[in-house]
User: Fold this.
Amino acid sequence: MHRKTILQARDDLKNKKYSACELLEAIYNRIDSVEEKVRSYIHLSKELALEQAKEADARLASGDDAPLLGIPIALKDLICTKGSRTTCGSKILDNFVSPYDATVVKKLKEAGAVIIGKTNMDEFAMGSTTESSAYYPTANPWDLSRTPGGSSGGSAAAVAANECIAALGSDTGGSIRQPASFCGVTGLKPTYGRVSRFGLVAFASSFDQIGPVTKTVADAAYLSGIICGNDPMDSTSANVSVPDFMAGLEKNVKGLKVGLPKEYFSSGVDPEVLENVQNSIKALEKLGIEPVEIELPHTQYAVATYYILACAEASANLSRFDGVKYGFRSESSGDLNKMYTNTRQEGFGDEVKRRIILGAFALSSGYYDAYYIKGQKVRTLIKKDFDQAFEKCDFIAGPNSPVPAFKLNEKLNDPLQMYLSDIFTLSVNLAGLPGMSIPCGFTSQNLPVGLQLIGRPFDEETILNIGNQFQKETDFHKKFPNL
Assistant:
């Protein structure tokens, strides 16, 4: 049962092959058997989940047809869930219990989903390996000595290890796509504004976006149809109608053009990653898709621009964690200033402190124009690169990451190397575009490789369709690690 996709489990539940309670029990049994190795969860909400599963069974018996009725779903631990701990992988929020549901959680519950627990993540979503979590690093289910990627590493590892049917993550600079690529699952980052950020604990407000991590593209399309849509509670939520993503999966792709950015196929990419991605392009050509070479000349500035702007926003967003209103408070606090300083010194990890300092510096008087304003101008140039590229093609394809999953601790003491590993994903967030990672092959060491598909703004439909057609012709997404 734990190996099922959303669509398979939904059919089975409707046809009474098993109950929602039995499916939930199967998932928790799977968690009990492999979680010690993978460590993809921060905490599980067994009692709440059992109540939701019982309610789902009652609704199923009455003929209710809600789209996610009885389906066990995991949430990245920065999505507020009423009555449940929401820690952001940080000591500073270790004891925080959310008083309300995020909009996406509300939508999942209305659709009948069973929320099984919160997945591990880099602290405040800052990292590419899940190693900056205040709790423990998550392991990659394909090779337990390697990272699952980050910051949604727990969500991707849980899906790959069949410890949930699907999960939600968040993507600020590649945090859904890179771990999906490392763990051999499907991960979609929707267009900025497509999914409500209300109840998502902010890292960088003009970049963050919630999205699905699933076993198939069809599941990603199905889940997206439920979580997408305008929300008056989020001022950045786009008032754009949501298409029927499932109906869009069967559209004819013949004659579409795929843009291949020369900057994404450079000598800096691991040869085995490059080979798998190039084979995937050939598979797309067999579907009748025409490859077109394009240029994204400002790609080389993406890392520097992202770390100036995202850290600037983070330094402002994280100022609320002061030990006064909620969360951790230092016991060694003489006066108010000391209490603030000590709370933040003891509560935040090294990576978060590094980014707050970097952001505060970029926003400080005398440096604001040189860094923050300049970064915003380069962001505009990066967006223009994509606008011009989409005049020649319908979607863009390339690697997700220059390398497959690397060893735990390998880049921990070299932040710059860590930051550079996100070079192909960051531009998509800077431009606010939809992007998706789908499994496209394996290295000689049996490590998954992901193909990145990038669409026009609010055109998730095209990349979901392409990804689904690709998965009909390949079976990389059907392979799971042997735990």
Notes: The first strand starts at residue 41 and ends at 44. The mean pLDDT is 96. The chain has one domain: 6-257+392-478.
